[in-house]
Amino acid sequence: MNSGLIYFKLRQNYRTATYVTLGFFVFGLMMLAAYNAFDMQSMMGEMPPGSEDLMRAMLGTKGVLMWDIGTFLAMAWRHPIILVMLVGWAASLGSGYAAKEIGEKTADLLFARPMSRAKLLWHDLLIAASLLFACTMFFSLTLYFGAQFFALNPPALSAFVVAGLQYFVFALAVLGISYLVGAFVRDAKTVVATVGGIFAAMYTIELVGGLWDAIEPLKTFSLFTYLTPHSALTKASSAWTDLYILLAVATVSIGLTYILMERRDLS
Amino acid sequence: MKSLAIMTDNLTKHYRGVQALTDLSLAVEQGSIFGFLGANGAGKTTSIRLLLGLIRPTSGSSQIFGLDAQTAGVKLRSQVGYLPGELSFYTNVSGQEVLDMLGSFYKSLSWRKEACEAMEMSEADLWRKTREYSTGMKQKLGIIQAVQHAPPLLILDEPTRGLDPLIQRNFFELMERINKRGTTIFMSTHVLTEVERLCANVGIIRAGRLLVVESVANIRKQRFHRLEVVFSRPVQPPNITAVKISLNGQFENSYAFETSGNLEPLLSYLSQQPVDSIVCERAKLDDIFLHYYAKEGIESRE
């Protein structure tokens, strides 16, 4: 373990991590304050026909929606603004290992050090995963303690921890796919744009598949299908299955990156 | 014979049909200063990246201190200080932080202070953000990071790019001191005078092919000269076989004399003529290349 490299990578990334985490914090508190200020249940009841289907598609759930605090919090986790922030940030972190180094012409400096590419990847992964974990868990805890603060009667803390873990593993899958894309391209912008495109397509499949039965089978290929905070908050066992699927995607993509990077020309 | 610091065997690299390097076979002795001379795009940087294992060869192999670049890359790179040709630094951190991070891979940074002094980089300079650095300062930081961990082999790609003359002189002195301590220096450049100043041997590369490995003393002997001479009155041009003579249309009674090797016959002739002015041009890299190309052509015909 090279502490100098770890410190350096933290130094490079802490500012963005702080801003993103603050953004999540403010968003979570504002959502809870809004829930506290308005009678959401009657508001939802007055929504035009078909709106509930859209809400279900956005939440990734089926059946009758209970407009309770759990459902509302799941909306916070799966809100498009938060998802864009999370995917963008994780993609940006994932672009930092090779593509950014090559694009900014620092690869010759870093990869000429006496450390294997695999170890450099693990160092990068350690920092990126730690920052993502801190941010996603902080968001979960913000939602839990915020809901406590507003006396909204939230589910147990352990349910929030599971939802946070699932959110973290989803971010890890984005990170892994970004590493994988980065193993082919030569600059960070291309990685972020490509990963952004992939996840936009996945989100579209998830949303349209939730509304249109003909598309529904394609939802298997969307990682958003496995981001199910609502299941975590209701302590459904499927929450863990979804988490393991996301973890498998992250592991496979990072493993493939390792193999590809061993053979890649760094120039 | 001394043991070898660098050895390559038919090292070849092709990029999607482009032959960046073809059959490079090179041997650099330990403790020597070797100049790798070639124009931009000749294959110098590709050769260096192959030596360090940053890119994979299409065929052939390379070794540093007997360690193969492809199979023992980590151990090999622990023996090397490297200054990249396309130098760029992480922008949102200070020079000091860059040095600390890049130095964190080595046990000792015993030459950092000396290198900083030679490059005239103060503490204040080092603590500035690298995005505020000029090209020259970036190059100085690049040299310090390459030298700081006292490597047995220094690989420098265009090391004097962007350095002012005073710092260049300091750089050459630093290299001489380091070399005396036993460090082998492999320096790529397209500036002939740098090679003459430092190196004992030189490899000349063009279009991805090594033309020749020659001692600097021999290159100097065969050195190309171009003299533009203006005479005060019309003169009879000399009859010297090794000298190519052409009329210089810019001035009346003006000739251009081109020769390589011994200048004595030409100078002897000029000393007896009414010379108004002489301009002597230093050899250009292309002239050296042409010289060796011509030589190579003759050898291949033979």
List keywords for this structure.
heterodimer; A: 267 residues; mainly alpha; 12 helices; B: 302 residues; alpha/beta; Rossmann fold; 2 domains; four-stranded antiparallel sheet; 11 helices; 30% strand
What would a concise description of this structure say?
The complex is a heterodimer of chains A (267) and B (302). Chain A has twelve helices and no strands. With 267 residues, chain A is mostly helical.
Question: Can you describe this structure?
Answer:
The complex is a heterodimer of chains A (about 270) and B (about 300). Chain A has about 270 residues and is an all-alpha fold. Chain A has helices at about 5-35, 40-45, 50-60, 70-75, 80-95, 100-105, 105-110, 115-150, 155-180, 190-210, 230-235, 240-265. Helices cover about 75% and strands about 0% of the residues of chain A. In chain A, helix 1 (about 5-35) packs antiparallel against helix 5 (about 80-95), helix 1 packs parallel to helix 8 and helix 3 packs across helix 10. The longest helix of chain A has about 35 residues, at about 5-35. Chain A is globular and about 65 Å long. By secondary structure, chain B is of the alpha/beta class. Chain B is built from eleven helices and 14 strands. A six-stranded mixed sheet of chain B has the order 6-7-8-3-9-10, sandwiched between helices. In chain B, strands 2-1-4-5 form a four-stranded antiparallel sheet. A four-stranded antiparallel sheet of chain B has the order 12-13-11-14. The longest helix of chain B is centred in the last third of the chain and has 17 residues, at about 285-300. The radius of gyration of chain B is 22 Å and the shape is globular. Chain B starts with a strand and ends with a helix. The relative contact order of chain B is 0.14. Residues about 300 of chain B have low confidence and may be disordered. Chains A and B meet through helix 1 and helix 7 of A and helix 2 and helix 3 of B.
State Rg of chain A.
Answer: 20 Å
Mean pLDDT of chain A: 91
How many structural domains does the protein architecture of chain A include?
1
Largest sheet of chain A, in brief, is: none
State the order of secondary-structure elements of chain A, H for helix, E for strand: HHHHHHHHHHHH
Biggest sheet record of chain B: 6 strands, mixed
Structural class of chain B: alpha/beta
Low-confidence stretches of chain B: 298-302
Strand order of the largest sheet of chain B: 6-7-8-3-9-10
User: Which regions of chain A contain 5 or more consecutive residues with pLDDT less than 50?
Assistant: none
CATH topology of the largest domain in chain B, which one? Answer: Rossmann fold
Supply the CATH superfamily name of the largest domain in chain B: P-loop containing nucleotide triphosphate hydrolases
What is the total domain count of chain B? 2
The CATH first-level class of the largest domain in chain B comes to Alpha Beta
